[in-house]
Amino acid sequence: MMCDIIYASKTAKFGQPEIKLGTIPGMGGSQRLTHAIGKSKAMELILSGRNLSAADALKFGLVAEVFEEPALCITGALDLAEEIGGFSPMAVAAAKEAVNVAFQEGLKLGLETERRLFWGSFATVDRKIGMDAFVKKEKPKWENQ
Known about the structure:
Layout: E1 7-9, E2 13-15, H1 29-37, H2 39-48, E3 51-53, H3 54-59, E4 65-67, H4 70-85, H5 89-105, H6 107-121, H7 125-136
Parallel strand pairs: 1-4
Antiparallel strand pairs: 2-3
Helix pairs in contact: 1-2, 5-6
């Protein structure tokens, strides 16, 4: 749950079994799970020690995609990484920051952060490159500036 994007194979299981050991999830497990799937479902899983199937993890928004086989999961992750790697590194970093602030701090600070990052992007060379390439129907050549 500390990952930006979670992919799973259809046989994957997710859970917080710590209650069965006489303790609670650590490393933010109770907090991240509650944010990801909601209080009621998180309570059920944490207090029972039960697991979620990959299909249910997808349904509840814990994972972004489920693949038929583990090898396809790796391929899917690498394909997405390559796709993201083709975008402006500055824009990717700003987008990650905006989403993380929204997740960790709430709507008010999330909107303030998004507004700051959005308007700040207009001062970058990459924004100009991206918009020029879009108008010309060309592939942008990012400079990370």
